[in-house]
Amino acid sequence: MSRYLLAVDQGTTSSRAVLVDAKGRIMDMVQRDFTQHYPKPSWVEHDPRDLWHTVLDCCRQLLQENQLKATDIIGLGITNQRETTLIWDKHTGEPIYPAIVWQDRRTAEYCQRMAESDPKLEERLQKKTGLLLDPYFCASKIRWLLDNVPDAKQKAEQGQLLFGTVDCFLLWKLTDGKVHTTDATNASRTLLFDIHQQQWDPELLKLFGIPASLLPQVEDSAHHYGETDPQWFGGAISILAMAGDQQAALVGQCCFESGMAKSTYGTGCFLMLNTGAEALHSQNRLLTTLAYRLNGKPTYALEGSIFMAGATIQWLRDGLHLIEQAGESEQLAREVDINHGVLLVPAFTGLGAPYWDPDARGAILGLTRDTGIKEIVSAGLQSVCYQTKDLQKAMEADGVRPVSLKVDGGMVKNDWLMQFLADMLGGEVQRSKINETTVLGVAYLAGLQAGIYESLDDIAALWQQDKAFTPSMDKSKRDFLYSQWQQGVKRIQTR
Questions:
Q1: Which residues hold ATP (predicted)?
Q2: Is 16 flagged in the annotation as binding?
């Protein structure tokens, strides 16, 4: 009898394969890092072969180390870095160009020109897709590929090419080219998908000059997508779920009721609030997106996206060499006063929500002769919390406030950071016992499709809290620190 769910998490800097049992316990994990490519300033690329081979290697090693066969796996779920864009040849399966990563800003000027040519365009885009006109999303990336890769436009018009986000590309590879499908959460990040009609929008395809033949079929997040080709794992494994990484984390945190929210602190930071059956239209430049779609019924979310969270600490480690390991940051922050006067605004690839300024660039402000490593590292950690506060304020201006905030991701192990986050938000922050909520979420979706779980209530019963952080800072101090942050952001804004 099959015993485990297999979750694949293809992220921005690494790929992972994780074994999860029916009670939501993580049994084992294999992870592989891969190279980031920066061919020009503000360009970020991945080699698609790295994405595929790290996933394949992780899965194979995980099965081998646990002496498991394909028949021991109930089903496989795929979660992925969103908005990262690939186009490949329909017949050979070969990508026509490296994957353009979600962080990439090469199409900023293109998006700016579109916005200037039609002042009402972004409003129309937001009504249909819930998104803004920004290089972050797939549409302008697809357009760039068609315009800049030799023969791509002609081949696309002839139906010889296929587009996909990373989930879709991996599904294509795992099924040996038999299935070209994505799920509704990933489709909702393309700027081409009408989230109300739940279909690709012909007007938007025409606007961006993208042939419909490029696009995958769209299915529910829990769905039988096909089976892995036996050549990969010695037998077929049913692929039963797909979801973008932030939506998967929402499911993993069991935020199934309207008003429940989670914030994930990985490379970037993503605060997502469940709004139920209502697609809430943000007046404050937040995104309306699909939280998940089950049995054809969409559940919506309001989302704020921050591009630099863990990536800021990586920069302090790898770029400035101020620390050797990310874990050192907690102790250094404890050794300085919270109000040390230094601000780090990590706009290395522009500012995300609610500013959406792709041309802004990072800055360290408030330096004095006494400033040292501790102050700069502390400022890097604090920037993550200030940016989360930006998102909270935008949500409140839209008339919603999270009834609870559950946190996950690599950074939440830092108790100092979580306490400062609770202080800045002025509310309780709940850290879950299992931090790997992204893989857990897509495993839950696969289990739901397999019938292991009868309902979302069955899944919600599995959630466990590790620790809760409650605010201990008085409001006047919180407001003063946040006002300093706001002044710092104004110094680097370009629009």
A1: 12-14, 267, 310, 314, 410
A2: yes
